[in-house]
Amino acid sequence: RAHHVQELSGQLRIVEEELRSKQTELREKHAQVVEHQQARGEHHQRLAEREHMVRAEVEARVAGHSEAARNAHAHIGSMEQHEAEMNRTVEMLRERVHELEHEEHYRSQRIAEATERIHNLRQADAAHIRVLEAKLLEREHALARVHAHGAAMS
């Protein structure tokens, strides 16, 4: 049983290390999501500012500046494409965070189950030791009686 407890304790340490690793990874992924969301907010602001500037320029120079207008619209399209890519990245990171949270929950359950098994084994070992101690005491008493009887017979 002691070997089994040691083995479970070893497994528990491994699972705890994996959990710490996953928690670190989860924190890193969360930080990336926050960073991407901040970048996205800044990007939206820049996009709005740029779009406003481009529209004002196009309206002021519409006569004879159609090439500049086409370039500005292409730039806006590129920025919108970049925004769409950022949105996909943020969504992918959210899904990964969700997966990591699920894995963390599963590992936490496994740790709790292993801890309970260790506790139960320790209780069973303690009860078994008490039974063995009682039997040993019984045998010592019986041996003492035999010696006493042998001494009385001499």
Question: How would you briefly describe this protein structure?
Answer:
By secondary structure, the protein is mostly helical. 95% of the residues lie in helices and 0% in strands.
The helix fraction, in percent, is over 70%
Largest sheet: none
Q: What radius of gyration results from the CA coordinates? A: 37 Å
* Beta-strand segment tally: 0
Mean pLDDT: 90
| N-end to C-end Cα span | 46 Å
Low-confidence stretches: none
Beta-strand content estimate: under 5%
Which of globular, elongated, flat, extended, rod-shaped describes the shape?
rod-shaped
Alpha plus pi helix count: 2
Order of helices and strands: HH
Q: Give me the secondary-structure category.
A: mainly alpha
Question: What can you see in these coordinates?
Answer:
The protein has 154 residues and is mostly helical. Helix content is 95%, strand content 0%. It contains 2 helices and no strands. Helix 1 packs antiparallel against helix 2.
Task: Give short descriptive properties of this protein.
154 residues; rod-shaped; mainly alpha
What is the secondary structure topology, with strand pairs?
Elements: H1 2-60, H2 66-153
Helix pairs in contact: 1-2
